Amino acid sequence: MPAPVTQPKPDAPRPPIRFRGRSFMATVLAPLPPVEDWLADLDALRQRAPAFFSGRPVILDLTGLTLDRDDLTGLVAELSSRAIAIYGIEGAAPALLGPGLPPALAGGRPAGEIEMPEPDAPSPEAAAPAPAPQAAAVSLILDAPVRSGQAVLHLEGDVTVMGAVASGAEVIAGGSIHVYGPLRGRAIAGAAGNPNARIWCRKFEPELIAIDGLYKAADDLDPSFTGQAVEVRLVEDAIRLALLERT
């Protein structure tokens, strides 16, 4: 008798792609004019403690500093030559940023001053402040719209935007996201691992939505919801849209 033909087993379904937010401590550098003198002071600090910036993510705060794009590019290059890695930029006009520069950041919460190290300081881990006790969830309310190129990251609770989220903007929340205007950018809720988070907006025109790591881009969304007041939630590990009742 001929040998029985063995049918190949169907491939197991692949799990959906997920991405999550994670909160890290970052050091904020806020240059003061004249920038050349500020860089000299920074060099003096590095001479006292050469390893102070080793392994530290750094945010560059340009609030109150007037720079053009060439100045900003030069400043980032100066810091890079000192082995200071810039992960994001605060307080810069969107027109200054773009390819070749760190992304814009907004919505950061101050975590206190970091003491300057003494000469021959120990490793950065020993010089870093002790971790703060776990705080209760706190909502972040933005009275201004989130403009193109801005990224708002708040993993400690909900984010409420009283205006619009523009195309090219991004809001990432550990909890839910409320947008009392058009949602045209990216809204990522439940980024700290909260499948019960939701997204609400008055006008649904997003580039991307996500909850607890599950996402859908604009091309994957039902066009009948475009321009409507919409709620986004997870139902059995799938993103579901529902129209909000208008009063």
Describe this structure in words.
- With 247 residues, the protein is an alpha/beta fold.
- It folds into two domains: 27-113 and 120-127, 2-Layer Sandwich (Alpha-Beta Plaits), CATH 3.30.70; 140-243, Pectate Lyase C-like (3 Solenoid).
- It is 13% helix and 25% strand.
- The chain is built from three helices and 14 strands.
- The protein has helices at 35-48, 69-81, 124-127; strands at 27-29, 58-61, 86-90, 140-142, 151-154, 159-161, 170-173, 177-183, 186-189, 199-204, 208-211, 214-217, 230-234, 239-243.
- The strands form three sheets. The chain has a six-stranded mixed sheet with strand order 4-6-8-10-13-14, with no helix packed on it. A five-stranded mixed sheet has the order 5-7-9-11-12, with no helix packed on it. Strands 1-2-3 form a three-stranded parallel sheet, covered by helices on one side.
- A hairpin with a 4-residue loop joins strand 13 (230-234) and strand 14 (239-243).
- The radius of gyration is 23 Å and the shape is globular.
- Residues 120-135 have low confidence and may be disordered.
- InterPro entries: CAP/MinC_C, MinC, MinC_C_sf, MinC_N, Septum_form_inhib_MinC_C.
- Residues 17-82 form the Septum formation inhibitor MinC N-terminal domain.
- Belongs to the MinC family.
- Interacts with MinD and FtsZ.
- Pfam families: MinC_C, MinC_N.
